[in-house]
Write a structure and sequence with these properties.
This protein is α+β, with helices and mostly antiparallel strands. It has helices spanning 58-62, 96-103, 110-121, 187-205, and strands spanning 13-17, 24-29, 38-45, 67-82, 134-138, 144-159, 165-176.
Amino acid sequence: MAYQDIPKPIRSGIVVVDPERGTPQRIIVLQFNPDTLERSIAPQAAGSGGDAGGGGSGGDRNEALRLKGPADESWKFTAEIDSTDQFEIAAPDGIHPQLATLEMLVQPTTAQLREAVRLGRRGTIEISPIETPLTLFTWGSKRVLPVRLTELSVNESAFDVHLNPIRASLSIGMKVLSVSDLPAGHRGADLYMAHLAQKERLAGAARSGRLGDLGLGRGL
């Protein structure tokens, strides 16, 4: 196989989307795909606490197999940024632009802050919290999901002569936004449903085991 025939690896990244129009406002391609992904999935059980073995109300027993909604899912990974790996790209500010782009995912804009101040000076009794654009995390075509960043920890480890950072490691935590978090009809809710449907298709493609494999040849 010739070198040019080797498939180019797909990159992971973050897409900032206008929730009304569905158009991408900014596409952040991670320089390196993270080596590991840490995912936590916690079911939304209908009961308010399980029976610890000492008895419980009949209502709790009736709710044991029920779910209130989609599982609470969170992702965590480490991203690396290194300008020395991209000599062909001019970087007079080091990796300040890349860091600022990620940091603005959890910051309001100056225009939004000024508007909040203006409303406050006009005597507006209740000022709605600032709404951020819809953020999508992409990990290949089978994982495109709406998220909210819950953690962004930056470790800068190298600097140029002007003290611009040129290498950094970022710990990024995200909460997957489901239909329990977003209003009906929101574009993010539709994208979550598409993500969940993808899981269902993949689960359906998995080969089912046999009771005999579990030592239960005579049945349950």
